[in-house]
Amino acid sequence: MDSGGPDSGRQATAETVRVIVIGVGNTFRGDDGAGPAAVARLRARMPPDGTAAGVRTVCCDGDPVRLVDLWTDAALAVVVDAARAEPACPGRIHRLEPGATWPVRTTSSHGLGLGYAVALAHALGRLPGRLVVYAVEAADGSPGEGLTPAVAAALDPLVRRIRAEISHAGAALPVEQRH
User: Fold this and answer.
1) pLDDT tens for residues 91-128?
2) What residues does each domain of the chain span?
3) pTM score, two decimals?
């Protein structure tokens, strides 16, 4: 798994990155690792050399400044993160397209969340062309590795949805092989 820094994951130049998929979370806090796990599963479905034309995958700890740096200049940024909801339905996937007026409060398990990153990017003129957020409802964020069964079961449908977002953005991913 990546260290979470902005340079982790697949590399591409600014001219070739049309799509960035950012897995937000901490793999040592249970279901908070849903974002990095989804990125790992997406990478496993990429060509053997790990590249796809115009697509970059990366993991991040959720720091708003890092998120803004990662998605700047991308035509599409897909952010995947664990979320809390009341009432909770672990493994349920939410798709959001935040705009400049998206609330600053966060449903993320991280202190300063995505709302702050969106507000900062808007103020700096550094929002991606389009931002899509997939939030997976978590059951357990306590210390320890591994996802709960409900969140783990959500990964394959989530990755299919991310691949569809990438495809609609015009980036090239190979046709997924069915296992």
Assistant:
1) 999 999 976 455 554 444 454 578 889 889 999 999 99
2) 19-168
3) 0.82
Q: What CATH architecture applies to the domain 19-168?
A: 3-Layer(aba) Sandwich (3.40)
- Contact indicator for 46, 96 with CB cutoff of 8 Å: no
- Non-local (6+) Cβ contacts of 6 within 8 A are 58, 60, 66, 69, 70
Amino acid identity, position 146:
G
Tokens of 28: 């040592």
Instruction: Output the pLDDT for position 106.
Output: 45
Quote the CA–CA distance of 144 and 159 in Å, as a whole number.
23
Instruction: Please write the tens of the pLDDT for every residue from 63-79.
Output: 999 999 999 999 999 99
CA 19 to chain centre: 11
* Statement: residue 52 has pLDDT above 90: no
